[in-house]
Amino acid sequence: MRKTRVLLALATAALAAACGVQPTGVVPAGPGPSIRNTEGKQVFGGLTLYFVSDGRVIPVTRPSEGFISPEGAVTMLLKGPTEREAAQGLTTFVPPEVGRVEVYSGDPASMVVPFPVRKLSNQAINQLVCTAIAASAATDRAPRPHGVNVTSPDGPMYFQSCKAD
Question: For 19, what's the count of Cα atoms within 13 Å in the CB-facing half-sphere?
């Protein structure tokens, strides 16, 4: 009987203490990372490309049907955002498509691009590397660890990792 009273008193005290919790307003923390489907329909396993929004490199999901190679994904990135994506504030810092891109699996993977990369911004390099890694992962060719050696006419850039939001 005494245990019951003690337990009842503890339960009552716990409930009374919880009643003093005051609600708080929304705490602004900035925008969270997002994956945006820019074509309006949900597609499981769509193609992920990386574009720039407000100076940040973010993943963008495009619907896709069938297999798209890592080379195909990077080539689509080089074509830039669609009109709809551009209207949402997405842009690209990579140069437009000017030749063939090659992506090779390995440890780490490697990518060969037909334009100089040393003068590109960090965002542009991240767009290329993140897109190649995401496309490779979708085809079970993901580099382990997640990094890519990038070779271009101005020489190699070793082990570039994805630094996107």
Answer: 6
Instruction: State how far the Cα of 46 lies from the Cα of 67, in Å rounded to an integer.
Output: 10
Nearest Cα to 133, choosing from 98, 100, 109, 157?
Answer: 109
Quote the pTM value. 0.70
Tell me which of 11-15, 50-54, 103-107, 149-153 is least confident: 11-15
Strands (E) in 66-116, as ranges, are 102-104, 109-112
Answer for the pair 111, 145: CB distance below 8 angstroms, yes or no. no
- CA 64, 147, 163, 124 dihedral sign is negative
Q: CA 165 to CA 35: how far, in whole Å? A: 10
